[in-house]
Design a protein that fits this description.
Blueprint (H helix, E strand, L loop, with lengths): L5 E4 L5 E4 L7 E4 L2 H21 L17
């Protein structure tokens, strides 16, 4: 399962990462790699919670002409 994420550098130099398909699913890290690891854990927890409560897990449709399309 793949989810799109957004990465931003905050004023303190931390990388802030969000998953638009998962409302409220945000994390951060001192480095880009740490932030990505943290959001992966957050997304996994989000998916587990959605399934536990019988709610549909959001999916994304990839649109565009990037290298994987």
């Amino acid at each position: 399962m793949k989810f799109a994420i957004t990465l931003e550098l905050d004023e303190d130099g931390y990388t802030v990462v969000s998953c638009p398909a998962s409302p409220g699913c945000h994390s951060q890290g001192k480095t880009r790699e740490e932030a990505i690891t943290n959001i992966m854990e957050a997304i996994q927890g989000y998916v587990v919670s959605m399934r536990k409560h019988g709610e549909p897990v959001p999916s994304i449709t990839v649109v565009g002409d990037g290298p994987n399309n």
